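Subject: Sanity check before I submit

Could someone independently write out the structure tokens for this chain? I want to compare against mine line by line before I put it in a report. The sequence has 326 residues.
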Amino acid sequence: MELRAYQLEALRAVLFQWRTVRRTLLVLPTGTGKTVVFSHLTKRLADAGKRVLILAHREELIDQAIDKLHRATGIFAAKEMAQHQATRSADAVVASVQTMTGARLQSWPADHFDVVIIDEAHHTLASTYMAILEHFAGARLLGVTATPDRGDKKGLGQVYESIAYQYRLGKAIKDGYLSPVRALTLPLSIDVSKVKTQAGDYSARDAGDALAPYLDQIADAMSTHCAGRKTVAFLPLIQTSQTLAHNSDCAGCASRRSTAKAKTGAKCWTTSAPGAMTCYAIRCCSPRDGTSRASTVSYAYGLPAYGRYMRKSSGAVCACTPAKTT
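---
Independent answer below. Compare away.
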């Protein structure tokens, strides 16, 4: 898989930074190939005899990294998660942060890995990540993220010494790698005065309650403005996702479906059909096997959500937002 010009620049920038610092960040917008970049970096390191640990916090991200590593570079990465135990001879190990704790973490020699790569690096300051970094303290570190901002305002500078490379969202659009954005606001005034915040963002339950009275109007507006387009609606709760999907059915939208699911639910659907509307609940899958927050005050959560429907595709994606909140 050939690297784009900015991806090659990013890879070289990381290697250059590691000459003077041990812990650096790579910032690329959602949809511009972060996984491809660190896959090629892993290949270069493996070819030089280095062993790489890649950390992620969800199984879909772990499986995505393993798949991309093989398709982009030919590397067969080992999986360290739950019942999956990676062989110590693997050049690259993709591991669950939740698995790499306690005795499982201690079973790995502290000097086993030369490099640690953290996907979704804005989570780095969590105690689970920090324990892993402390254990592999001698390894170089690369954090990969769409935004170095965190909802709780804690600075990643506590861990990372530099930003090796940052590809701006506007530049990605100008270069033709992401679709341009056209915002459409709906004439609704949603009262969020009673919505509490948790960890710097809206409470999902409160946000769902605040949106509930307006779902009929939102569905009507979407039937007008999103007709014939692939449409993604990010919502705060399973219930609000299901309700909007039902209301859109009544409003005349075609091919409605809701991917809202419980933790044990089946794999999510994608927006494959022209004119399909997919309603995504928080903590359920996004169009590219990630998660997003619809009702958010957090730039760190909002930007990746927007980025998911800015990927180039065969059909346009329609996204509508309320005019204002009060």
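---
OP: Matches mine. For the report I'm noting this point. The radius of gyration is 21 Å.
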